[in-house]
Every structure is written in C-alpha cells, then in structure tokens.
Amino acid sequence: MPSVHELDVTFRASRRVCRIRVGSGALDRLVADLAAEPPGRLLVVVSDSNVAPLHAEPLARRLRDIAGLRVETLTFPAGERHKSRETKAALEDRLAELGAGRDTALVAVGGGVTGDLAGFVAATWNRGVPLVQVPTTVVAMVDAAVGGKTAVNLGRVKNRIGAFHQPWGVYADVALLDTLPAAEYRDGLSEVVKSAVIGDVALFRWLERTHPALAAREPEAETAAVAGALSVKTRVVARDERETGRRAVLNFGHTVAHAIEAASEYGVSHGRAVAIGMSVEGELARGATGFPEAHLRRLRALLVALGLPVALDRGIDAAALLRAARGDKKNRGGELRFALPSRLGRMATRDGTTVALEERALSAAFERAGVD
Amino acid sequence: MPSVHELDVTFRASRRVCRIRVGSGALDRLVADLAAEPPGRLLVVVSDSNVAPLHAEPLARRLRDIAGLRVETLTFPAGERHKSRETKAALEDRLAELGAGRDTALVAVGGGVTGDLAGFVAATWNRGVPLVQVPTTVVAMVDAAVGGKTAVNLGRVKNRIGAFHQPWGVYADVALLDTLPAAEYRDGLSEVVKSAVIGDVALFRWLERTHPALAAREPEAETAAVAGALSVKTRVVARDERETGRRAVLNFGHTVAHAIEAASEYGVSHGRAVAIGMSVEGELARGATGFPEAHLRRLRALLVALGLPVALDRGIDAAALLRAARGDKKNRGGELRFALPSRLGRMATRDGTTVALEERALSAAFERAGVD
Fold first, then answer.
1. Bridge partners of A18?
2. What is the interface pTM, i.e. ipTM, of the complex?
3. How far apart are CA A192 and CA A207, in angstroms?
4. What 3-state DSSP class applies to B22?
C-alpha cells in the first residue's frame, strides 16, 4: 500500500500553510485534494517539452475528470537557458489567450527550471495566483519546490529576477523519479546528504546504512530520503519565509559549488558541484568550527558510496575558483563567507550569520581537496 | 515652517513597517533618512521623461552628496502604454549594466505609472530590493504609492502582471504638485473625496469648508487633504496587506469608473471617471444600503465645487457601460458587485463583502445620473 507522508509547513510570520505530500501515491492525493478544494476554476499545467508527454499530459487527463474544472496545458522548451523573461512572457501570452483571470491556478510539473519559471509566472499573474508544485526530480523534491523561491535568469546571472511565492501545495510522488536518468537521480542525492549534515544526524546515519536501497531506487527508500530531507528544509524556511538570514544554513557546500559551476561555465552539474563543495567546505569547517575529522571522513565516504565526487576531476584551477567565489552574491563587502557545520547534523551558524574566512584558507582547502 | 505629517503604517500580519511622510519638506526628510539609514549602497532613481528634469534629476543631485552612496538615474518614456513588460525589461537590463545587486534600492519619482512600474522592478530584482516612493501627483500620493500594489499592463488588461511589494517609505511632498497641470491636479481630488466618503466624515466636512484653499493649491490645505486621505487608506491596507477582501471598501465608485474608462477607451480620465462613478454608485447606495439622499446631494455638491463631473458629458451609452461593468474582473460569477457607503464616512460593507445588484438597478442609476 502506498504510504504518503504529510509534512505541512506553517510559516511563522504570515501563518500561511503549505501542504506537502511525499511518497508513492502523492499524485493520487493531489487529484483528490484538487477535486475536494480546487484552488481555481481553471487549472493550467505547465511543463517542459521533456516532461510534458511523460507526466504533465497524463496528470492533465486525470484532472479533466474532475467536475467543474477546466484544465489546460502549457509547454516550453526544456533547458536552463529557457528559464528566461522571454519564456515567462510567452507563457503569459498563452494565459491571456486562455482567458486566465484571478480564478486560475498553475500546476508546475517538472524539475527546478519548471518550478522556478512556472512559480514566477504564478507569483505575478494578477499579482499572484495559487501554485501547485509537482516535482519530478530529486533536487526539485527536496529543495526547489519547497520554500517559495521563484525566478528566471538574466544573462549569466541565475535567478536575477524573481519573487517569493509560497505554493498552495507540494506533491512529491517518487513514482515520477522512475523516468529520471541515472546521473540526474544520483546528483540529486547530494542535496539529501546536505540536509542530513545541516540538520538531521539520524538521517545521515540512515543514509550510511541504506544507500544501497537508494541506489537501487527502491520507492520506500526514496520516500524516506525525500521526506527526511524535506523535514530539515521546512523547519528552516518556516522560520524564515523570505530569506532574511536563517536560511543561510541551507547554503552549506553551496558557496564553493556556485564557484565550481561558474568557473566550469556550468559544465559540472549542480549536484556534483554541491558534493565537491561539501567536501571542500567540510575541510574549511575542520579549521574554522572544529568539525571533527572523523565526521569529514564519513561525509566523504557517504558521497563516494552514493556515486558522487569529493574532488574536482577536470582542469579547473584554484585561481579561477577563487575569482568565482569572490563574485558570489552572498558575499558581503568582499569577504568570503560560508555556512559551516560544527558536527554532522548541526550547523555552527544557526542564527543567520555566516563564517568569514580569508582567501588563503579557501585555497588551502582547495589544495587538500585535490584542486590545484 | 514646513510641517511634515508622520503616518507610518504597520502591517498587521507581517509586522512590517512602511514609513510615510506627508507635507512640504517631506523631500528634505527623505534625504535625511537616506543619509542616516540608507536601504542600499546603490540608489537608482527611476522616473519618466516628463518628471526626470523636473524632480528626479534634482533629487538625484541632492542624494549624491550623501557620503558612501552611489546614485544613478534611469528614465523611461512617459505614458501609460509604457507601463509594460518591455519597459520593465529595459530597466532591468540597465540595472544589470550598472552592476546592481542585492545592495540596491530603487527610488520611484513620479505618478502612478512610475510607482507601479518601478515598484514591480523593485519587487522582482533579486526577488525584491527596497523601494522608496516619491509620488508627484495627487492620485499617486493618496492612493497608488501606498499599499504595495505594483504591476505592468498586458495588452488591454491593466495591472495583469505584478506583485505586492510594500515600500520602505513613501515621501509625499506637496511642493512637487506645483508642476502638475490643473486638470490632473483636480482629477486627483476625487480620490481624496472617495477616502472621506468611505472612512472619514470629518475629512468630508473639512473638504466642504476648505475646497477653495485646495482649488487655490495652498500647501497647508494640500497637506491636510493628502494626509487625511492617506490615513483612511493606511487603516484599510494595514489590515489587508495582500488584498484578501477588506480592501474592497477602497473600490467605492470604482466599479462604474472602470466601466466608464473601458467603454471610453480611456478617453475619460481616472479621476473624472471615479467622480461620476461615486455619483452613480451613490445613487445605487440610496436604494441598496439606505445611503441618505441628503448625503448623496452633499457628495455631488462637493464634487462639483471641486470642478469634478457627476454625470457623463460625452456620448457613451448605458449599454456599453453595462457590458464593460459585466467584464470587470472584480465581479464574481457574473454578478455586478459594489462597495457602497451607508452614510458619509461609513461603508455598508466593511468585512470584505460587496453588495450584489441586478443589472437593471445599475441601468436605472445610470439614467438618473444622466447617462442615457
């Protein structure tokens, strides 16, 4: 029998509630919830050209059976470069053609690009219409779909233009992961590891024990991993709906990851960059916060066991990484700042502050992590 | 000595504060406040091509004297048709060229178009940067600049794409009204009358006594009128930051006004349309809420005294108005809905509900208000 975890989050400041359903059968719950309490009379299912035939069209067909609802589908070309103002405008023009007014809700079916893009359309259509997130990748399930961040890129700057818009609901059905390519699936697990490091040592231990089941893509293991990672994230965002500071803990591994992505011109995937980033920043944490060497070894061993890298395997030099790190928008006043753990499951910096380090500490960590 | 009223509003749900300063000398306060507590290290002053030389450039020159701040100006072509996605994109491209990051604040200097457009840019740049509103028209001072509504138009649909983004501050300096053409000044007073009708009978009586000073554009009278109208608006929006219902009272006169604007293809100005709208909806209120006939007479007399119309003076027929009213996006399920007063200073519908009326009631009111 399919088990569906309920992880609803109530935002502390606004008291708004976002319903979160995780597991095999979450899509059935979505259909039932939309039938019982539709957030709009027109539902517009948005997906990219890859996901449309696999998941969006079948979902739209099921939703069309709900009495009183009109269901339309919109598709845009797959790929990060289509997360743009131009794609947003094209979707808006189509909404206008459909006669979509305030009584419209958007259903984003896909990975992070779809969630961010359709989410931003929903955030600004009539100054905000309800949004349902149906993530179809591991990263989108454990990270992108929850928290309300929506955006498009501008030129080379990711997420330059966007808004906070909390979804009406997030329905993460691990059955949708079956169509995900192996590399993308594995990459997504690095965000699960990150969640464990920053906030749940029991989840970390479970990952150490259960990674073969995850690698075998067993639904129960997938459900437990996604639900565990999401619990950490919802705890953080509930207290910091609009990213005023506390959300900084979510950036463990990400300062270095963003530098790797930028320096490689996005030739290294986000998930692999985050894995290497955690390895490097774990090294930094050893000196800066007393993160135990044994914990760093366990972190790297888990990443390797999951098929993720802990060192760069291509020709990006430390100087280019440092330049990219310096340009990171999270750095204030030119300092290099990091969100670092003090041990597995616990961050040194939970009050929104970050650790400022000199560049030579970072170059030393790059060296020790196999970047020359 | 210039007097500056302080009307800071604290939003009930989010606890956010928006500082509001009204009067001659409000601009001096803005310069002092930005020097003491700058909301960004880069200030970008946005205005249209009319207002840029009159008010935006002089303000930018003053702000450049503040140590540690970089000040840039952006200008777009004047006119409602430039309140568009294209103008927003052009402003964003310029922000990117200026290297504007999270540490940027926008200063919107102008009327409603500038406030809505620059406000929407601020709402979405890096998912939201601080916004200072410096309204230069009566309508913008008493209505558009306060409440956090930002948007652009899409095709013929006004404000189709936008966001809620509460400003860091609103600085309404009545000295800026000196450059406003007489017709535009007079039109703006209809929103002051609306504020009095929906929430402040003392303001209404004051307007009945003091309208000659307003017509003569005496700064003390202007300050009192703007501050009075703003007090009504801030009381409403503080309880309904994201327009979930209670803000409906602000729509008195506006259901009919929007129909007049649409049916005339915006040949009738918003202020004049609102004046006629209040006259027609006042007539409706007589039957629907017991709005006293004597109050309706006083309302019409005040509008006439301020040089505003109470009946249509051009060839728009009632059938076209009804068609336009039917299309109003505030109508739910095809009914005609109105926010109506029960007497001067008091709305019949303060809990967010509106009064549903049959179309023939509206046609009768059109007739009695001189529309045939």
1. A9
2. 0.91
3. 9
4. strand
Quick one: closest CA in A to B121, which residue? Answer: A161
More confident: A365 or B96: B96
What residue type is assigned to position B248 of the chain? A
Q: Identify the H or E element spanning A190.
A: helix A182-199
Using CA coordinates, name the residue in chain B closest to A128.
B163
Residue in A102, A127, A163 closest to B127 by CB: A163
Query: Whole-angstrom Cα distance, residue A199 to residue A341?
Result: 9
* Per-residue burial over B211-224, b = 16 or more CB atoms within 10 Å of its CB, e = otherwise: beebbeeebebbbb
Interface test with A, best of B127, B244, B326 (most A CBs within 10 A): B127
Q: Which residues lie below 8 Å from residue A209, measured CB to CB, with a gap of 6+?
A: none
For A100-156, how does the pLDDT look when each residue is reduced to its tens digit (9 = 90+)? 999 999 999 999 999 999 999 999 999 999 999 999 999 999 988 888 999 999 998
**Residue of A127, A156, A166 to mutate, interface with B, max B Cβ within 10 Å:** A127
Q: What is the CA radius of gyration of chain B?
A: 20
| B154 and chain A in contact, CB less than 8 A | yes
Test B96 with A126 for CB contact under 8 angstroms. Answer: no
Set B83, B211, B247, B295: catalytic member = B247
Q: Cβ contact (<8 Å) for B124 and A161?
A: yes
Average pLDDT of chain A? 91
A297 touches chain B (CB under 8 A): no
Cβ-Cβ contacts under 8 Å between A and B: the total is 74
Query: Looking at beta carbons, which residues of chain B come within 8 Å of A149?
Result: 127
Give the angle A285-A289-A295 at the CA atoms, nearest 5°: 55
pLDDT at A2: 59
At A364, is the secondary structure helix, strand, or coil?
Answer: helix
A165 catalytic per annotation? no
Question: Is A320 or B260 the better-scoring residue by pLDDT?
Answer: B260
- Report residue B77: phi and psi, to 5°: -65, 135
Contacts 24+ apart (CB under 8 A), A94-102: A95/A44, A95/A121, A95/A125, A96/B154, A96/B155, A96/B157, A96/B160, A98/A42, A98/A44, A98/A72, A99/A42, A100/A42, A100/A44, A100/A125, A101/A42, A101/A126, A101/B329, A102/A126, A102/A129, A102/B329
* Segment of A2-6, A317-321, B195-199 carrying the highest mean pLDDT: B195-199
SS3 A292: coil
Q: Which residues of B touch A92 (CB under 8 A)?
A: 85, 154, 160-161
pLDDT for A336 beyond 70: yes
Residue B333 scores a pLDDT above 60: no
Find chain B residues with C-beta within 8 A of A124's C-beta: 120, 124, 161-163
Q: Known catalytic residue: A82?
A: no
Separation in Å, CA A153 to CA A160, A213, B120, B127: 5, 36, 17, 11
pLDDT of A372 reads: 45
Alpha carbons B214 and B218: distance in angstroms, whole number: 6
Residue whose token pair is 């692999």 = A272
The residue-averaged pLDDT of B98-116 equals 96
Active-site residue (options: A149, A158, A194, A211):
A149
Q: How close B94 comes to chain A (CA, Å)?
A: 12
**Count of beta carbons in the 10 Å neighbourhood of residue B181:** 9
Beta bridge partners of B137: none
pLDDT over 70 at A289, yes or no: yes
Among B92, B126, B160, beta carbon nearest to A126 = B160
- Model confidence over A163-210: pLDDT tens digits? 999 999 999 999 999 999 999 999 999 999 999 999 999 999 999 999
CA distance B247 to chain A (A): 15
Active site includes B247? yes
The answer to whether A158 is a known catalytic residue is no
Q: What is the mean pLDDT of residues B77-93?
A: 97
Of residues B233, B272, B300, B337, which has the active-site annotation? B233
